[in-house]
Amino acid sequence: MPRVRTSKVEYPEGWAMIEETLNSFDGKMREAVNESDDGKRICEASWPIFKIAHQKSRYIYDLYYKKKEISKELYDFCVDQNYVDKNLIAKWKKPGYERLCCLRCIQPRDHNFGTNCLCRVPRESREVKVLECIQCGCKGCASGD
């Protein structure tokens, strides 16, 4: 969650360009948190939250690294104010992790046999072609897909 906004925070140049989109992501996040989890498995309740957090981080990542539409100062401000997941963005910059959905998929302690999640296996190497990650609900985030 981003920090509570106060009048003391000075927003960098270009903030107006991304403010509306970040506010819409915050609204979606509030809806996902308040959504009823009746009829869902325990693990499914947090999937929308992971998805929105991924989308928000990917939006800022693409604006800074791919499209180069925002300044470093604005990017650093978003990271410092916790608008994005800096650890996830750090993984996206490494080869083989360009499409990583969440950090839980690569943590061996969260999976059987101390391995990665099944969504990290390329589709052509899987025995079962359609699956959902139990951690975040993604259908495959291997960079080779």
TrEMBL record:
Matches recorded under Pfam families: BUD31 (PF01125)
Subcellular location, principal: nucleus
This protein's record includes keyword Nucleotide-binding: no
Cellular location(s): Nucleus
GO cellular component: a single term: spliceosomal complex
GO biological process, alphabetically ordered: mRNA splicing, via spliceosome
Record keyword 4Fe-4S present: no
Domain of life: Eukaryota
Keyword annotations of the record: Nucleus
PANTHER family recorded: PROTEIN BUD31 HOMOLOG, PROTEIN BUD31-RELATED
Family: Belongs to the BUD31 (G10) family.
Protein's name according to its UniProt entry: G10 protein
